[in-house]
Amino acid sequence: MIVYRKPKKSELKNIAKMTALSFGEYPINDLELRGGFKDLDSYVNFMSDAHYVYIKLYHRRHVCIVGEEDRVIKSLAMLKRPDSPEDSIWEYLRSGAMDLLKKTSLLRLLKYLNVLEEGHRPCSRLKEPSWTLEFLAVDKSCKGQQLGSKILKDCVIPYIMEENEGNEPASFITFTNTESNSKFYIKNGFTEFDYTTIERNGMAIGNWSLRMTLSPC
């Protein structure tokens, strides 16, 4: 049986290692980041540190949920509420972002953040307040067990419905940079509302933006 809960602060580093391995070959990382590392181990090590900063911030300011089975954390979802303020540079620094400069240059990190901002842009342009699925990860060793669909259907969507105020439908959005992930979200009830490409250094990747409307029961 899978138990969904907020992770403990002491668990965040191990969760970050899990998500770094899960997203190690994610294409958005190739545009401005991965080429700066001499080998796969140093790249994954940096991504683990970067994910730790990201997860630590969400654990403190937003919604961070893990799926645990047999006392092993196997999935993670991170959400932003419709009324969440933007995360300032100070908030990232407070979560340890300065430590990342020990393993990569400031210029490379800023270029990577610019790529991420471009990926978010279609969702940011939507006028209606929306819940945002910023991050969904499943332990690489558990792929094929439908854990991503389970955390969405059994936890994330019910959580939004419970937290949504009033009788108005809730808007739920996300984006991804792989066609397979886009198909995953569509299979789980999202519809595509924007597609574009992100180009850097002679490379281009797809950028799918998706949404779902959750009607109150």
UniProtKB/TrEMBL annotation:
Gene3D superfamilies: 3.40.630.30. InterPro entries: Acyl_CoA_acyltransferase (IPR016181). It comes from the Bacteria. This is Uncharacterized protein. The lineage of its organism: Bacteria, Bacillati, Bacillota, Clostridia, Lachnospirales.
